[in-house]
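User: Fold this, then the next.

Assistant: Folding the first:
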Amino acid sequence: MRKPNIVYILADDMGYGDVSYLNERAAFKTPNFNKMCEEGIYFTDAHAASSVCTPSRYSILTGRYCWRSPLKEGVLFGYDKPLLESNRPTVASYLKSKGYKTACIGKWHLGLEWTYKDSKNKESIDYTMPLKDTPVNHGFDYFYGIAGSLDMAPYVYVENMNITALPDREEGCTTIQETCKMNQAYNKKFFRKGPTGADFVHEEVLPNFTNRVLGKLEEYKDEPFFIYFPLNAPHTPILPSKEFQGISGTNEYGDFVLMCDDVVGKINTKLQELGIDDNTIVIFTSDNGCSPAADYKELAQYGHNPSYIYRGTKADIYEGGHRIPLIVKWPDTIRPNIQCNEPVCLIDFFATVSDIFGDSLDDNVAEDSVSNLPIWKEQNELPVREAMVHHSINGSFSIRKGKWKLEMCPDSGGWSDPKPGTTDDSYPPIQLYNLEEDVRERFNVYDEHEDVVNELKNLLIQYIEDGRSTEGKLQENDGEKRWKQIKWVD
């Protein structure tokens, strides 16, 4: 078997409804996303494991729910230490063992181990010294990217283990740290090239990443490769390049989405020019739903909803928080223009890759990952997974099995109404939705289906306590063993 190349493109905070092939009401066309749908398989019921960045990325690379790690809620920030355990296999380390060249270019957001001048001050980075832990410690031969989102300091590029570019200093600042603090609001006027010659400019980050990925495709073309390309867009700060400004006919968020669409087009065109597109798996997806920062109210004036028909946004336990676009193209294996309505999760990537090689994974690897290869090959072995678990920004759980979705909170668990802390005793303590009849999650029927509630509760408890949701030897979770959001566990 010829080893397929893999390019995994991960948008940052892009909604299901932002791909016009999936949204008949989209206010703009996304030609390159649409072309991928026409040439491969596109999913209408695909989900991130979490509704926010860090935990979603952890699950993609490890095949393990992030709430099993020490991170039980929220996300990491730019100065935070690595979340990935030193001994935990990743998709990258697995493929490297198969003889692949592996590269990560883009937004990492899983923590880096900086070298500090003062160990007690996490902002006292020594920018002249190598880092101690980056993606090259987790299976990647090459890394070029940023620690977190572009609204998180420190604003620097890291290449492999070294810092390669620093932000320009604002007037009145005496240190890089002060500059970073000043710019937490990520105003567009900041980080223009200045007299110090610094070359970290927010608007140039996405084009820079794209050019480097294109270069790696050229470099790796003669051997099997895995390129993980987590975009910094369309996450805030919303900074479409000049040639994309106004192109969507909506707002800057719409323009930024179309810039991402163009990036995907450039990648697929390059693969064709190199003559390696037929045996290259190209995956396009998003780490979670769209952020309210896109300005849903303004976009609605143009008839556009980044969440499509789904309730909620990024951060929420509702569908809009974690239902995302997922498109897979592999001309040698996947027929063109397949629509799949099967529920799948991004956490399934690891098991899918190992299934391509016919490998069984060890019990302590990818404990929650299920192969989607039967779906790609249309082998009708459905459903591929028993159930899937979702996690909101405040650590609230939901579990989905078939048409039923149980949410273990009275609220959104995130940023939509009703927000956590705003509910009272008049709200039901949990929520149950029949997604076949009520995919918009408007009618909570928990009190009408006690048997379903109990079944899903017990299954969620089992998944938590077993340390895995797939068959195999029981595993341990990291950190605390109980979660405040599951009061009924005790």
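Now the next one, as you asked:
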Amino acid sequence: MPFKTLWITLTLLVSSVLWSNTSLAFTGTAETINNGFVESPECPIRYEHWLVSEWRPIPFLNLPKLYGNDARSHAILTWFYGGAAAVYERGYARETLSKCLENGSCGLEKNRKIAKILKKDRGDWSDRDLRRFNDYFSQSPPDEAIAEGTVGLGRCFGDHPAQKSMEEAGFMRYDFTPESCEIAQKNAYTLTFSQFAIYSQFFNPKTDCIKGAYVPTPIVAKLDELLAKQREEERWAARIAAYRAKRPVAERIKGLNGCQIAYGLIHHGINNPDVSRIPDAGVRWALAYEQARIKDEACPLIPKALSNWVQAQSLKTFEPAQDPFIYYRNNMPRGNSNLDHWSNYVRTVMHHYERPDNPHNAVPAEHCSAFATWLNGKKHSQKTDARYDWQFLFDVLANSSGRTGLSVCAQAPASMIYQFFSDQRLAQQQRAAAQRRFEAEQKRKQAADAAFQNLLRWKPSYNPPASEPRCYRRDDITEICFQN
């Protein structure tokens, strides 16, 4: 075995021996963790947050990769409780501490040599690197580093005197109520702030929602904001409920026909002990009414037994039920439903929006893909307002995926199809014009290039000076010369 590898193996063996009195359990408790950690109301970390396993006897906090100040606090905490062995094992801690030592931040003085070692892969460490590493991290973190590690984390370093106060660390006391605790449970992601990721990771509403708990100051502000918003919403809901309870019967049934009133009475009478038993025919009729509304068909005839029951009901507390068609329209097929299912759904819904002045047609199959692409580009720029059919097709594209998006071709407004073909023709004309401009430009460039090449080939005509004779020889070797 090479000497360097043997040295690293011995180092890890020594580290294991140092921690050999640690129990080999997967979940740390007060009895199994022996790294000097003590639970405190001023620290969000508890014994059960430390992980210990048979293959890794050094306790580590159960945390994902952290960034910024959170990574700083975590690295210093790892160093404080685990020493050189923990830093050696924890890659995130080495990465963070190398930056701190290189920049002279995190309460540490600059040490480029140690920073350079931490940046290396551990398998590339020399014997000298390993000795320097152990010499440096076998010491406890300096007071300045512990003070910096307190910020955003809390007083988690036992009773070390260098720790900052909880106020300086960014915390304040907060009296949780059942209401604010429920808000904290519901808004866990909203209440996650940079620099307090460790607190948010370990916050447990079941145990931490108490009076006088230490909570990060920005989280307290957000909790108060959410609490005020919820109370305001509850006040408005109570006022609306009080107003609705006092409405006269004429206002309750305004704009409703007899079928809608009967359906509302059945809908609210089911599982309501204060309402007399609904006739069996009433439930069957309600199911038929729902299908009729979805298919935009006439209201089915009301059986006599149901009619008598409806007439006997009081309308003083009547509330209309949701239109079955609205429910059907808003509950689209699942994303993995096939194209036929989506197309039938589109045809059913679009049938409700068709009018004599707004006819609908299917998009020709050969143009379907281009139409869906065109419509997808229109959904962010087109003003729909009261054009419910347009908005519905936009919603279909937003909720379908892949091939199922072609279901918009099953039925579309004729005006939409006309605009699609108009845009296609215009785009084709623009492409043709652009092609013509491109070809003309290419011809111009070719002509200019040809002219330039002619210039390169140009040579001046031979024109000897007038003072020199111009001669030639004949076949009899006689030379004839011209002087003019």
